[in-house]
């Protein structure tokens, strides 16, 4: 991809999106753990797991040691998000379901769909590989957090959650074909993901099931 | 392994077994998700997870990027299996427990035990490594599908399920020692796995527990 | 790290700790599965999963094929632990909660925190990476065993379990900075981990939650 104005303005799209995603998802994961009355180590683990699990899976899929284990910056951002969650839990009644947390989750989802698409493109996988790694990077943290919290992974029950990352990853691939800069592709991917997610939350969108499509009755 | 008649007839054993396994397991995984009334994206995810999780784990264990993210053929076969599951759900009453699905599951188990044994042998792991990777390739998809469906992994409760893949992987290793072709070893592995699995289903075989062996009473 | 008396006495710290950890964790995992009346294959799988899952995750994080798939010694030690669990289940009333099993679990935890710290240090990750890989190596097996047993991972509910491995990994890193031998660092890591774990069990230590700290009331 060539450089353009938006690309230059945006600097290193991976670093920007990674910073946003780590902080937002650590906040959301720790908020879930606080709700379940986990102890301090437990909420740090759930917060860091939510922040790091998607990216670590992404890194393993392109066979490299996870960045979270190599860079002191990643752990600092994760702990910042956990600290924000503890602060929020003091000032808010039920932070896990507060709009602040829902928006942070949508922003983290979009940021990590974008980092996934960037790393996958650099690794030279197929178009499906780009969409799959973008989606895994985006939803992996939430799935692992839910497993640690002993809940069924809500990414399968929230109709427009993983779907938003799928659309964002596909958008990244499509605009990449058009020859835009990596910065522009990152912005498009993030906006498509966070936009569809927030609209879906506000309007309570859901996908059809085989049953509601009227194809069969149970 | 040298080439022989069966080996030549069979062409590329990995490609044949991989094609069968991906289609069969995507069908079985999507059928389980339809039974649980998952939405369309959810059943695609469960179907693809069941088709890809075992092979992706196998690829990570031999430290390479999963084939499913590199080859457009893999995703096409997975979606074909999901499509077959939707078609079956329209014509059958309870497809998840129908003999068609049980047989598809046994065939997928055998096909993936074989691909696992082939990849492990090429990677030069130990005899235990061959059996372990064959088994993980065979049962990994079902285990991940059950976790996504929030069920206890049935591979631990079906007595002759993982056992069949263990026997198939061991058979692959033993006939490999005898110097047969890769094609012959693949056929032996697949037949041992699918044969023991179908006989176990028909005769309702079960393994002893420490309790039923009379070693202790609880 | 330079060689000193303790380092020479201890030989290969990784091999010593790995042998102890594999046997102890296979014993604990198989004991849990016997308690749940799993069949023989099931308890072998849970025992081996508990013995191997942490180390396999560690190896994947530093991008190498898990040792358990390459070395026949690892599988032998795992099966030895499973055999010990079956023997214990015959002579003891409830082996899963017997002091023998609790001590074996603490020893396995300490041994695997140490192998994790050794491998991470050799791989050249950050200080957080050393602590994280030590902790994952130590608690990964128990977490996977609990998931296979369809229990919530107890590592999140036992307050001083993962914490002990965190402390051990941190101790390994700190004494490493002081320039001691790998053998001495391994002994320090193992003693810190097993010591804090056993003291925590005896005195029933627990960490504070956000609620018990009085920061908020639910």
From TrEMBL, chains A, B, C:
Membrane topology of this protein: Multi-pass membrane protein
UniProt keywords, alphabetically: Cell membrane, Membrane, Transmembrane, Transmembrane helix
UniProt KW Zinc keyword: no
Give the CC-aspect GO terms. Answer: plasma membrane
Q: List where the protein spans the membrane.
A: 6-28, 40-61, 73-92, 99-120, 126-148
Ranges of residues in domain Glycine transporter: 16-88, 103-175
Give the location in the cell. Cell membrane
Q: Which PANTHER family does the entry mention?
A: INNER MEMBRANE PROTEIN, UPF0126 INNER MEMBRANE PROTEIN YADS-RELATED
Q: What is this protein called?
A: Trimeric intracellular cation channel family protein
Give the organism the record lists: Halonotius pteroides
- Name the lineage: Archaea, Methanobacteriati, Methanobacteriota, Stenosarchaea group, Halobacteria
């Amino acid at each position: 991809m060539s450089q353009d104005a938006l690309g230059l303005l945006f600097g290193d799209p991976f670093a920007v999106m990674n910073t946003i995603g780590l902080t937002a998802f650590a906040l959301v994961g720790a908020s879930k753990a606080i709700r379940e009355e986990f102890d301090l180590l437990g909420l740090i683990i759930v917060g860091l797991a939510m922040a790091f699990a998607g990216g670590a899976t992404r890194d393993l899929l392109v066979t490299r040691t996870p960045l979270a284990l190599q860079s002191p910056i990643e752990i600092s951002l994760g702990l910042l998000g956990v600290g924000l969650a503890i602060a929020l839990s003091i000032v808010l009644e039920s932070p896990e379901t507060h709009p602040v947390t829902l928006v942070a989750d949508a922003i983290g989802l979009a940021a990590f769909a974008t980092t996934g698409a960037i790393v996958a493109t650099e690794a030279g996988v197929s178009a499906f590989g780009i969409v799959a790694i973008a989606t895994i990077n985006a939803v992996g943290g939430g799935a692992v957090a839910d497993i640690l919290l002993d809940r069924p992974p809500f990414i399968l029950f929230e109709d427009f959650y993983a779907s938003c990352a799928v659309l964002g990853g596909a958008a990244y691939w499509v605009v990449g074909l058009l020859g835009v800069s990596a910065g522009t592709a990152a912005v498009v991917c993030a906006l498509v993901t966070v936009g569809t997610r927030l609209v879906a939350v506000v309007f309570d969108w859901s996908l059809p099931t085989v049953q509601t499509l009227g194809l069969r009755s149970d």
